[in-house]
Amino acid sequence: MLFTSLEFFVFLPLALMLFALLPPGKRWIWLLLASYGFYGALRPFNLVYLGALTLLVWGCGVGLAHTTGERSRRLLLGAGLVVVVGSLVAFKFYDFAAGELERLAGQSFGGDSAISLPRLAITTPVGYSFYAFSAVSYLVDTYARRLPGQHSAGHVALYLAWFPKILAGPIERATTFLPQLSAGLRADPERLVLGLQLIGWGLIKKVVIADNLAPVVDKSFGIAAFASPIDLLISVYFFAFQIYCDFSGYTDIAIGVSLLFGLQLMENFRRPYLAKSTAEFWGERWHISLGRWFRDYLYIPLGGSRTGPVRQYLNLMLVFVASGLWHAGLGYGVGWTFLVWGALNGSYQWAGLATRPFWRRVGAWLPRISQSVLLRALRVLLTFHLIAITWVFFRARTLGDAWLILKKIGLNLTSIPSLLPRFPFTADHYTAFALIAFLISVEIVDERRSIFQRLAAAPVVVRWGLWYLAIFALLILGRWQAREFIYMQF
User: Fold this and answer.
1) Which residues pair with 329 in a beta bridge?
2) For residues 480 and 74, what is the distance between their CA atoms, to the nearest angstrom?
3) Active-site residue among 287, 327, 385, 429?
4) What is the number of alpha carbons within 13 Å of residue 282 lying toward its C-beta?
5) Residue 402 belongs to what H/E stretch?
6) pLDDT tens digit string along 100-114?
7) Has 155 been annotated as catalytic?
8) Is 248:176 a contact under the CB 8 Å cutoff?
9) How far apart are CA 207 and CA 211, in angstroms?
């Protein structure tokens, strides 16, 4: 059941009606049932994995709450983490690793393969990467006594299964989610309005922008060896906006739907392509919930920046390589491309960290230049292009395809401007360019003041006129149920 499907637009009003009929203290029970129904509609057997993980996490939480000995608590936490993280690694990588070992053995010892390893042949349950990370945060926060560890099994189950976020986040923390359940769920008019606005904007991002860019991207990346350099360059740009609108569109809808039920989820995107550095992009603007998860549950436990510069650089690279491995999955396959994607982003952080003192000195010497609009715009453009290069590895089928795409673009970069007038642009290209220009304009305006605050302050005629225009765009330009959200496949 996708957010863009007819079934969801039947499911959501029914869920809201029954929610409104129940007393606030009992509403979470209905939301748990609705969440399991939503998740089970995708593939009923997935409920087995979700239920087993929930019982494990809740049981470990109770054990941590009642165990006083620190050694026993560490053993209990370790056992829980091994099962959660180990199952995630096995689902994602075992079959891939087995195939790679067989290939290497065949190359080393001759023949098709010197060994034959068994396969799990298990498809990773949809959304498992997201609720497994939520499970890890619950266990660690309970161990650290940031949570009491005595929540009802039902509350923990709803935290992991909450249907708006289970497929693609945000990776919500139990420390903010569970207290909302305990307080009783109430939807107020202000939250309802904001929720509906976020749902509308998320749908525009997904079905109007992302899914109109996707066909051009799919075609060029699918025939990288035969596509022209201009085709590939356009597709790299288009994919940068496709993945942003697809993923942030899902998040906007998830946050908006949650607000309808009185639940507040964390912000996950903050106009990432306006970042002035890759550190700002990853630390403050892109997939914020994942970035903070890695910061709090991997980077800081590894020592962060407290153990000297060498360890800091190593910790940064480990975080980004782990992020690359986490992203590998059904979306674009499991392969070495995601490892390179993570390592390349990690190398950007190294370069930024190493040059930070120099740029601070330049800013102190030339304050007017460092704060100029022109320099900020140039930094935004540079950051966008650095990130766009990494998206090539994210989207390409193989490392060979990724290198080929970058090579064809790089070797022909100087000749592309002269070839553009003769390029056979289609209606799909012009539509995509217009949609990207519209998105950038909205993001720039939103950077200064929330677009929803501006709408609330606008005259009624203007406000309703824009919403009718948005509905018209969804009906005319929207590609409904054309494809799944990209990140729900990881």
Assistant:
1) 333
2) 48
3) 327
4) 21
5) helix 399-411
6) 777 777 766 665 546
7) no
8) no
9) 5
